[in-house]
Every structure is written in structure tokens, then in C-alpha cells.
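Side project, low priority. Logging it here so it doesn't get lost.
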Amino acid sequence: MVVQAPALAAPPDQPVPSSRAGAAEGDAMGTLPQRLLLISLDEDGKLRDPNSSLANGLAGAALMELVLAGRLEQQDGRLVASAGETTGDELLDFVLAEIRGQARPRKLKWWVNRLGSGGWGRAPVRRRLIEQLSRQGVLRQGEERVLGLVPVTRHPPSDPALAGRERAAVREVLVAGREPDAAMAALVALVHVCGLVDACVDRSERRAARQRAKQLAAGDQVGGAVRQLHDDMTAAMMAAVIAATASASAGAGDGGGDGGGGGS
């Protein structure tokens, strides 16, 4: 069973905005990308990424958070940022600035690819989020050596129970039958797309939990805009995984680029 933990903490004067401002006391808190990242981390700080889709998943999570907060909307299939102040969250404000800085509105798939892969001097969303949470003390930096030779940096949660709490919140919906609000349904949809359902439930519960996650991702709980975002993000992730597999098979290099593929 998953152990519950305290909510995401931030240093003074740096509040962590939550996609669940109205959540009951004791519920998991934090933005969607923060929560998805914590779910993906094991106790050693290694990222679970069974579908090779976490980078794009975190980009999609940031976009979903902004849609739920009313900071983004889709117009003729393209994302448009609303006027207003910053969110107070470093990553979300970066995403808003990127969208506002484009000469013309772009499709969601384009943004998922661009934000997920980075390029042209821009760090991808995953790296930005890890650095942000490390500065805030939510994650700590560790190092291990693969085969005793190659140093690999890990970022385990400062409090390992933080990730446990987020996984427990997902399990409550998928196994215990708790009715999700829009933000929780969006998180479950992200967990489903990134192949992380198994990390949230016991082995005997996995089959039923996967089916429940699939139903929620396609259902009305997430709302029309978020459901469309989920569908477009899934398509973008599939395209990215197929492209990466083809590139690896062909022996091609990393190629760089601005990550803005998948249509304009």
C-alpha cells in the first residue's frame, strides 16, 4: 500500500500554486507537473518512464495546469494565452511567456513537442522543473555510478513520502472509487498517458486500475478542453516515441532542433 505524506512545501515567499486550491485538508497538493514528476520518481530519485513519454507528459501537464487555471484556451485548435498577471510559479510563467512570445498561435501538439524537447538554448520542461524543485528543497541531488564507472545524477525527494502521497491520491481514484475533481482527473489522465498507473497501485490492482484510468482520460470528468488536450498530447507523444525509435534504428544523431515539430 502507498504511504501518505505531507503536501508539497516551498520556501517562504515562494508559494507553490496548486491546481487544487479547494482541496480538503490532508489532500495532495501542487501543480500538475510537480505532482506528475513526484509520481515518476522512485525512492532513489530515478525517473520511471516506461513509455518514453515523460518529457512530453510534463510539458502537457504544464499546459493542462494553465488551461484549468484559465490562463490558456484553445481557439480554432491553437493555444492562446489570456491577459493577466504571472502565476507565481517559475515553470508555469516560463510556459506562458513562451506562448505569449510566439508571433502567431500554435497548435497544442506543437507546444508539447517544443516544451518537452527544449532546444535552441532552452532547457526542456523536465530539466526546468527538476531544477526548480531542487532549489525549493522538494528534491535533493544525489549521484551514483553505473557499473561503478559512469556517474549519474539522481534527484530523490527530500521527503520520500511526498511521492507516496501523490501515488496514494491516484490510487484513491483508480481503486477506492473516489470521485475526482477536474484537476485530479487531469492528473490521472497524465499518469495513464505516461504509463505510470502501475507505480500507483498494488500488483493485483493493476489491470483494473489501468482500465479505470483509460475511462477517466476519455470521460467527462476532465472537461472538454482538457480532454482535447489529453488526446492531442497522446498523439504528440506517440509521434515523438515513433520518431525517436526510427532515429535510433537508423543510427542517426540527436539532431537538436527546436522541438517544434508535429504541425504548427
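Brief comment: Residues 32-249 form a domain with the yeast vps74-n-term truncation variant fold fold (CATH 1.10.3630.10).
Revisit when time allows.
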